[in-house]
C-alpha cells in the first residue's frame, strides 16, 4: 500500500495530474512529520500536534488522525527528498491552502516549545518550494505564534 502511494507521489509530472486528493493529504501529513523530525527530536507533543492539524484539516476523529500520522511516518521515512516531495504537493494543493500548510508546519515546529534552527530552515525551504514567498511565510509564522500565545521568537 505505502509503496504504491510513494510511486504515485513521485511519478512523472504528467502522471501527477491524476493524484487523488487523499494522496495529496497524506503527502502533507508526511511533510509535517518531516518537519518534526528535522531537529532529531520527534516528541510526543509534536506527534499530538500533527494529529490535531490533520484532524482540523479534514475533519478526522482522533483515531483516524493517529492512523494518518502513523502512515505519514512510514511514508516520510521512504521519501527520497524534500524537493520531489513538495513538488507533488504543489501540483495538487491550491496556493491558499499551501499557506495553510506552511502554518501547520510552523505549528508543528513550535509544538515542543523549542525554537529549532533546523526546523525553521526546513520550513523556509519548503515555503519556497511550495511557491509561498518569504514575506507571506513570515506573516503566517507570526499569525501562528500569536494563535499559540508565544511571544515573537
From TrEMBL:
<protein>
    <submittedName>
        <fullName>TerB family tellurite resistance protein</fullName>
    </submittedName>
</protein>
<dbReference type="InterPro" id="IPR029024">
    <property type="entry name" value="TerB-like"/>
</dbReference>
<dbReference type="InterPro" id="IPR007791">
    <property type="entry name" value="DjlA_N"/>
</dbReference>
<feature type="domain" description="Co-chaperone DjlA N-terminal">
    <location>
        <begin position="26"/>
        <end position="142"/>
    </location>
</feature>
<dbReference type="Pfam" id="PF05099">
    <property type="entry name" value="TerB"/>
</dbReference>
Amino acid at each position: 500500500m505505502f509503496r504504491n502511494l510513494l510511486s504515485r507521489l513521485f511519478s512523472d509530472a504528467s502522471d501527477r495530474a491524476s493524484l487523488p486528493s487523499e494522496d495529496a493529504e497524506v503527502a502533507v501529513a508526511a511533510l509535517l512529520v518531516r518537519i518534526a523530525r528535522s531537529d532529531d527530536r520527534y516528541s510526543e507533543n509534536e506527534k499530538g500536534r500533527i494529529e490535531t492539524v490533520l484532524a482540523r484539516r479534514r475533519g478526522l476523529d482522533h483515531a483516524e488522525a493517529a492512523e494518518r500520522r502513523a502512515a505519514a511516518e512510514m511514508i516520510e521515512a521512504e521519501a527520497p527528498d524534500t524537493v520531489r516531495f513538495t513538488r507533488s504537493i504543489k501540483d495538487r494543493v491550491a496556493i491558499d491552502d499551501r499557506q495553510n500548510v506552511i502554518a501547520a508546519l510552523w505549528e508543528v515546529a513550535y509544538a515542543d516549545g523549542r525554537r529549532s534552527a533546523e526546523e525553521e530552515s526546513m520550513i523556509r525551504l519548503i515555503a519556497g518550494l511550495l511557491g509561498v514567498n518569504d514575506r507571506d511565510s513570515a506573516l503566517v509564522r507570526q499569525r501562528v505564534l500569536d494563535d499559540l500565545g508565544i511571544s515573537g521568537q
